[in-house]
């Protein structure tokens, strides 16, 4: 479990490493981000039907795909896109979508208090070490009645890859994620009203392990753990990984499970 006092998740990568990794992936991300788009569209569909959001924020905007989707739905007049990875912002800005593109951190938002009707964040907040602080910042930046909608990942994500590496060397090759119970506890304690919060698995299938690991690298979401093993993976360990992962093979291919958290919270009037 996480640090109960502060909602902090030990073992997360340094944010500078996260920013650098996603910056490097800016040009390859959209080519392999099918799951990320599906999850973001699902999150969009969960927004309150009567929501009007002239002043919205796409938090962790990446290449700006959902900034453009939010602009289509709510207009661009006061749309803001924030990301910690400046390479992603440089990629997103020429494609428009938001009126403002800002380098910033979800735990310390560079926005005025009470300035947003909607904070939309899809698959970004799993990289934040102090989730209670993320929620406190959302509470601060939202107007009364404003909505925070986020998708994230929890424990169970990539469990097949994690178990296969454990069988090989017991080292940390897969990113760490919070328990869903921690999301429940922290959202309940945030002061925001929880309109919906649940987890839903999504399973992708791959012909070979290298197809999965290559995709994670192209997304910038490969292993960023501080305790990850250094250097190249030797042939023997790689053969061990392939053999261990084969135990999970299904008729459709090798499964990779993403345990997705969907949440919609509202600031009280």
Structural class: alpha/beta
How many angstroms separate the termini? 33 Å
- Quantity of strands, as a count: 7
Please state the CA-atom Rg, rounded to the nearest Å. 19 Å
Total helices: the number is 10
Annotated CATH homologous superfamily of the domain at 15-156 and 175-203 and 258-266: Vaccinia Virus protein VP39
**Unreliable runs:** 1-6, 222-228
Helix content: 25-40%
Order of helices and strands: HHHEHEHEEHEHHEHHE
User: How would a textbook summarize the main sheet?
Assistant: 7 strands, mixed
Average predicted local confidence, pLDDT: 86
Q: Class of the domain at 15-156 and 175-203 and 258-266 in CATH?
A: Alpha Beta
Q: How would you describe the shape? A: globular
What name does CATH use for the topology of the domain at 15-156 and 175-203 and 258-266? Answer: Rossmann fold
Oligomeric form? single chain
User: Looking across the biggest beta sheet, what order are the strands in?
Assistant: 3-2-1-4-5-7-6
Strand residue percentage: 15-25%
Just name the CATH architecture of the domain at 15-156 and 175-203 and 258-266: 3-Layer(aba) Sandwich
SSE order and pairing:
Layout: H1 15-24, H2 26-29, H3 34-45, E1 55-59, H4 65-74, E2 78-83, H5 86-92, E3 100-103, E4 116-122, H6 131-141, E5 142-153, H7 159-168, H8 180-188, E6 193-206, H9 209-219, H10 235-246, E7 254-266
Parallel strand pairs: 1-2, 1-4, 2-3, 4-5
Antiparallel strand pairs: 5-7, 6-7
Can you tag this structure with a few keywords?
269 residues; alpha/beta; Rossmann fold; 7-stranded mixed β-sheet; globular
């Amino acid at each position: 479990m996480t640090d109960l006092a502060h909602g902090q998740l030990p073992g997360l990568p340094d944010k500078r490493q996260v920013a650098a990794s996603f910056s490097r992936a800016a040009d390859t991300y959209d080519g392999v981000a099918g799951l990320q788009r599906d999850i973001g569209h699902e999150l969009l569909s969960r927004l309150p039907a009567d929501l009007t959001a002239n002043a919205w924020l796409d938090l962790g905007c990446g290449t700006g795909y959902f900034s453009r989707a939010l602009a289509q739905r709510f207009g661009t007049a006061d749309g803001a896109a924030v990301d910690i990875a400046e390479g992603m912002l440089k990629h997103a800005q020429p494609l428009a979508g938001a009126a403002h593109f800002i380098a910033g951190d979800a735990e310390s938002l560079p926005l005025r208090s009470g300035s947003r009707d909607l904070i939309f964040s899809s698959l970004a907040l799993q990289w934040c070490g102090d989730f209670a602080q993320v929620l406190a910042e959302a509470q601060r930046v939202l107007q009364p009645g404003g909505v925070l909608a986020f998708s994230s990942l929890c424990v169970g994500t990539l469990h097949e890859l994690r178990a296969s590496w454990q069988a090989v060397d017991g080292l940390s090759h897969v990113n760490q994620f919070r328990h869903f119970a921690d999301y429940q506890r922290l959202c309940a304690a945030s002061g925001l009203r929880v309109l919906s919060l649940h987890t839903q698995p999504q399973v992708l299938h791959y012909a070979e392990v290298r197809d999965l690991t290559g995709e994670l690298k192209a997304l910038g979401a490969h292993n960023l753990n501080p305790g990850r093993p250094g250097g190249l993976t030797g042939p023997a360990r790689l053969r061990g990984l392939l053999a261990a992962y084969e135990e999970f093979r299904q008729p459709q291919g090798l499964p990779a499970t993403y345990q997705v958290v969907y949440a919609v919270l509202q600031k009280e009037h």
